[in-house]
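Hey,

Quick one before I head out. I ran the complex with pyridoxal-5'-phosphate overnight. Inputs first:
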Amino acid sequence: MLRTVQQSLCCHGNRCLSNFAPAQRIIGHEKNLWVEYSALAIKHKAVNLGQGFPDFTPPEFLKEAWSDAVNVPSAHWYTRGQGYPRLVNALSEMYSPELGRQIDPMTEIMTSVGAYESLYAALTAFTDPGDEVILIEPHFDSYSVVVEVCGGKPVYVPLKPDGDPTNANNWVLDKAEFEGAFTSKTKLLMVNTPHNPIGKLFSAEEMEFIARTCEKHNVIIVSDEVYERCVFPGHVHHRIANAPGGWERTVTVGSAGKSFSMTGYKLGWAIGPEELISKLQTVHQTAVYSAPTILQEVIARCVEREIELKGQEQSYHSQLSKIMEKGCSEIISACGDAGLSVVEPFGGYFILVDTSPLGLEFDTSQVAYDIQCAQWLTEHMKLAGIPLSLFFGKNKHLSEKYLRLCFAKSEQTLKIGGDIIRDIVAK
Ligand SMILES: Cc1ncc(COP(=O)(O)O)c(C=O)c1O
C-alpha cells in the first residue's frame, strides 16, 4: 500500500515536472527591468528616480470623481467590454478635435488595463511568427518582449544625435537607415512620442516621413503617446495619425495613469480605424474582457472636466505640462551644479544624464558601464536611476554613460534627489 502511494506520488511528481515546463515562447523573458531596479532601490533605501511614477497626492477633483463614482450603481457592475460608454464618449469628444475627425466612440476606441494592455493587444493582434516589427530605439522595454513572444522579429533602428546631443530633439533617425529596415516581412512599426527615455518630441516633418514610408510599405503603425499631456509649455505634440496617410494605418495609445499622474490606475485606451481596433478588441476580450468599470467612471469624469476647462488655468493638463517642466528644471539645475551634462527633454517624465564627468571606473568586459554606474549610484549615493542601455536591443554603444532619471516626482523627492546629485562630485 505504502509503495503504491509512493509510486503514484513519484509518478505524479515526474509528470508535474515535465508538464509544468514553460511554453517555449516565454523562455528568456523571465526577468523584468522594473521589478529588478525597484527592488534594488528598496534594498539600498535609495531615492527612486528610476521608475516613472509620480509620487504626488491625488488632486481634489480626482478625489471628488471617486466619491461621486461610488454612488453610481452601474459603476460597480460588469460593463461593455470594448469600453465603458461614458468614458469612450468623453474620449471621443476629447480626441476628435485633436485628430481632426469625428472619432466613433463605439468602434474606434477601446479601453484597456493600462496603455500596456493596448500595446500588448496591438502587437499580438498583428504579429505572426516570422513577421518583422520595426522598433525605434531606445524603446520602452515591453515592445521587444511582446514581439518575441509572438514569434516576430524586432528590427532595431536607432535615434542618433545629429548635432548637439544635449538637445533631445537632435536625436533623429537616419532616413536611409530607416527606409533600409523595411522588407517584405515588415508588418508593423512602433513610434513613441513624447519619447521615453530621450524626452524628444517628434516633429511634424519626422511624422510625415515615417507615415509616408509606412504607407509605401503598407505597414501598420502603433503610436505610443502615453506622455501626450506632459509636453512642456510652448512645445507641440504631433500625432502620427494626423500625418498624411497616417490615420488609416495607426493605432494611437493613451494612458489615464500618465494623463492624470496616478500611474497605479492602469487604465489606457487605443484609438484608430475600426478595421484595426476590432483586431485589438479580439485580444482584449480574450485576455481581460474589460477594464475595471469604476475606474472608467472616474476617468470619464476627469476627461469631461478637461474638455470643459480646456485652455484654462484650472485644467489639469495645463497644470501638468508646467509641473513636468518645473520638475525637469530642478534636475537640470542640480546636474549643472554638479558639472553633469544632460540631454534636455521637451516632454515626458525623463531626462538622460551623462555620468562621464563622475570619473567612475569599472571593468566593462562583462557588464556595461552604465549598468555598473547605475548600481553604484544606487548603492553608494542612494540615488536610483535606470541605465540607458536597457532600452536598446542592438545599438547599445549609443547608451554609453547615460542614466535615465525621472523628474515626475514631488517637490520633496526632487529636493532630496537634487541634493544627492549636487553632493556626488564632492563625495
Ligand atoms: C512609453 C510607455 N508606454 C507605455 C507605458 C505603460 O503605461 P500604463 O501605465 O498606462 O500601462 C509606459 C509606462 O511607463 C511608458 O513609459
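The first helix runs from residue 2 to 19.

Talk tomorrow,
K.
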